[in-house]
User: What shape does this take?
Amino acid sequence: MRNGRKSAREADKALCRSTYMMELARGSSYIASTLTPITQRTAIAEVLNGFREQHGADTALIFRDLLAESLKNRKDALAAEAVLNFELH
Assistant: This one.
């Protein structure tokens, strides 16, 4: 049963990744370009809250995970961690 859940989650992530490719690229670039922890938190809030407002809460958690993965791929582990720790309201 666990493999089915993991596979479904991975399928959801793959669909979200392809559907929101532009938002992920734009958001990770914006967050990675920040220079201070304060501007980074502001950028994270803008990206994640903006996504949630535009696309709804249903995919916001998956988008947050994908955004963190994108930042890890950019070699920005601290920003990725900050994204994962951001609480969506």
Summary: The two ends are 31 Å apart (CA to CA). Helices lie at 2-19, 21-32, 37-55, 60-73, 77-85. The chain has one domain: 2-85. The longest helix spans residues 37-55.
